[in-house]
Amino acid sequence: MTIINVLLLFAFFTYGLATVFRVLENVRGKPMTNHGFVALLLGLGCHLASLAMTIQETASTQVFHIRTLFLTAPAVLVMVCAFIELRGKETIFSVFILPLAMIFMVISGFVDSIMEGPYYHGPIFLTHVVASVSGECFFLLSAISGMAYLFEVRRLKSKNRLRALSLFPPLARLDSLISGFADVGWLLFTFGLVFGAIWEQGILGTIFPREIKQFTALGVWAIFAAIIGGRRFKGWAGTRIASMAIFGFIGSVILIFLTNTGFHEFP
Fold this sequence. Notes:
The chain has nine helices and two strands; from the N terminus they run ααβααβααααα. By secondary structure, it is mainly alpha-helical. It is flat.
């Protein structure tokens, strides 16, 4: 077993431990901040170390392992959880996000596909991939916040105040998270698209989109740009941006799984 796998196993275990602490905390209503947060930070440190080593192993080759994507996404999600817990003292997101991160890590263990060739290496390509995936992680978080918002609104309208309702942040906070995650995700995704254009310029001598994946990416980019612009200039909020965030993330899922052609074809 390599040191990378040892680090990932430790990260997986500590994420699971942090999840248990957070579930107990939210169900019992008794804070266990230090227990869960320390476990989360230990896991994140090992996770980031293993990711850095994975990238370093292939830095000098002309091979990009798809596994790297499934390690990058959970690292971004867990970093956001840590930030929210540290800054906002909110742990409910960790209950949902940490198990999702663990699922990505399990999937990474079964993915052995590679993208091989002179185009699939170097800082420009790596920045394009990491920034794009990171942006899509924030789109996911925006959509999750949107679903929580719509759930709370529906329960309030039906006057059915479930216990779960009190676990979520207030509607105003969820509204802020939807737009905040959309802002960061859009900036990262834009960064990824710019570096993708630079990468394509080096391959084909043009930055104009040619593949369905590129057009889909522009569509997703436009949806979240509309959320940001609508909120800032037209006062959009609440159910409108919640629904748009969910719709935008669905487009992101299509972008990831259903538009892999040309230079973006994953084996």
